[in-house]
Design brief:
Number of strands: 4
Oligomer: single chain
Helix content: 55-70%
Order of helices and strands: HHHHHHHHHEHEEHE
Strand order of the largest sheet: 2-3-1-4
Shape: elongated
Length: 351
Amino acid sequence: MRKIEHFKKKYNDFMYDHIHLKRFMHEVNGVMCGTISALLYAFGFACFISAFLEGDNFTIVTGGVSGLAQNVALFLQFTTKIKLNPGQIQAIGYTLLNIPLLIFAFFKIGKRFSIQTAINVILSSLFLWLFNQYGQDIIRSVVESPVMSYPTSNTARSSLIIVRALFAAICTGFSSAIAFKGDTSCGGIDIVTYYVSMRKSTSVGKYSIIFNSFIVGLYSVIIIVHSFTMGTFGSEFGTAILSLMVSSVYQFITSLIVDMIHLRNKKIQIEFITKNPALGQVLISNFPHGATMSQAAGVYSNESKIVIRMVVSSFETQKVVAVAKRADPHVFITVTSLVQVYGNFFIRPVN
């Protein structure tokens, strides 16, 4: 562990003296995160969200731009009787529907963020096309073995649908989180939730749930309305409710994973109790945040103490604690998670 920390310190010191190389590596990191993110998203959609086993006609509603494309496909299927391939819709519609959101990101979030997100969207569409053209035959040959064949009982079918939702949520949740770690996004509603979370200075998961709940609900409404018009309300109503329930589980797990990994907008209050009056200056010299200092006294020793309170981003916590301990090895530190911060708080821009 010490060797890793030593290597990181040497790397940071080297990059500090080579600013252009540091910027280049930052862009490379963004592209790498975007590529991994796009691959995970395409794999999750092609393998778990879209139905590909014989006898399995249940589709999980993803929410966001993908879910919007699914709603459009379902509406066209019911109104024009045209059967559309979900993968083809994702590969084409995902790119087209992202164009206005990428323009929004360019002006409201930043040029780098929008360019990196555009790369992510293009790679996602490419990987989706490849998975649907070549990948599903391989996947189908594996899962359609006698052991993995599609179950016939209702209980087994429901279990398989839940398993699909869980694995789909894991793939897309990690996809969004990895993109956010690279200061980019997967496009679609992720752009909107990222922007709102920056403005509100809080986590992105809850905003994703709000935006996606409408799209998931709309999918079920389309099924119910169609069942009324076709006189098949009894059979399709259950499908609509199951779609709503399973897709809600999918959305919840996806948002939970994003908030667990993406720490940019999570705030932490750190309290330092010290005898060193210079600790406050050390902290604000190393981090772009303010601090509040007050006088205190120990109850047992009655010694004069200084209490310093500082709010930082979650990913800065370990570094702040390390700096404080170097300045004062005897400092007493408490760390508290915050739900919301109001007022001016510096967040490193992504552009």
